[in-house]
Specification:
The structure holds 2 protein chains of 2 kinds. Chain A is mostly beta strands. Chain A contains no helices and 11 strands. In chain A, strands 2, 4, 5, 6, 9, 10 and 11 form a 7-stranded mixed β-sheet that branches. A 4-stranded antiparallel β-sheet of chain A has the order 1-3-8-7, with no helix packed on it. In chain A, a hairpin with an 8-residue loop joins β9 and β10. The model of chain A has no long low-confidence stretch (mean pLDDT 89). Chain B is mainly beta. In chain B, 0% of the residues lie in helices and 53% in strands. Chain B has strands at residues 3-6, 10-14, 19-21, 23-26, 32-38, 44-50, 56-58, 64-68, 73-78, 87-94, 103-105, 109-114. Chain B is globular. Classes of the chains: A mainly beta, B mainly beta. At the A-B interface, β4, β5 and β9 of A face β6 and β11 of B.
Chain lengths: 118, 115
């Protein structure tokens, strides 16, 4: 199946700094990418939907100025957590959908990025 | 609005016995429903998908799920559990037919397998 990668897999940063997380579709063009957040022992919560070349659509309660999303190409989307605080510590997961050439069109998930803000 | 409810936060079964993970959905129209599995330190993997074709959907690794409209359920089953099935399982509903549609995750069920 299609492969989605995320980098870094884990990051530790100081409070007040910004962190960028990359999501790449390795073998297909992702017209739409999604960013999720997962707290320990909880489900995934959709943060935003991004389409290549346009502004991301944020879910209610998600601060767009804090979680900057850029989907500049059909294979790359980035999530930047600006001025991170300890409460931003979480597991961030991206998914990508597009014409993967597989038997079924579906969303493919990245392995996730664990962020710890000290 | 669509939603899914996973009735059990944790299920524990013995190796070789059947698995049943329960999911109920709420949708104003015919939904697309999915089951995903999340192993520790690995990405989410699609087990199976229902999109209004056959009500009994067969997935990977011996899993299957049956869509029951009258019960608004989409329970996941497997005849015989294997140790490698231990993971977190998510029932998911989509608000559209396209893969670009938003999907909504259930709260998850942690499956443990006893030797």
């Amino acid at each position: 199946g299609a492969v989605v990668s995320q980098h870094p897999s884990r990051v530790i940063c100081k409070s007040g700094t910004s962190v960028k997380i990359e999501c790449r579709s390795l073998d297909f063009q992702a017209t739409t990418m999604f960013w999720y957040r997962q707290f320990p022992k909880q489900s995934l919560m959709l943060m935003a939907t991004s389409n290549e070349g346009s502004k991301a659509t944020y879910e209610q309660g998600v601060e767009k100025d804090k979680f900057l999303i850029n989907h500049a190409s059909l294979t790359l989307s980035t999530l930047t957590v600006t001025s991170a605080h300890p409460e931003d510590s979480s597991f961030y997961i991206c998914s990508a959908s597009g014409h993967s050439g597989g038997p079924e069109e579906t969303q493919y998930f990245g392995p996730g990025t664990r962020l710890l803000v000290l | 609005a669509q939603s899914v409810t996973q009735l059990d936060s944790h299920v524990s079964v013995s190796e070789g016995t059947p698995v049943l993970l329960r999911c109920n959905y709420s949708s104003s129209y015919s939904p697309s429903l999915f089951w995903y599995v999340q192993h520790p330190n690995k990405g989410l993997q699609l087990l199976l998908k229902y999109t209004s074709a056959a009500t009994l959907v067969k997935g990977i690794n011996g899993f299957e799920a049956e869509f029951k409209k009258s019960e608004t359920s989409f329970h996941l089953t497997k005849p015989s559990a294997h140790m490698s099935d231990a993971a977190e399982y998510f029932c998911v509903v989509s608000d559209g037919d396209s893969s670009a549609s938003k999907i909504i995750f259930g709260s998850g069920t942690r499956l443990s397998i006893r030797p």
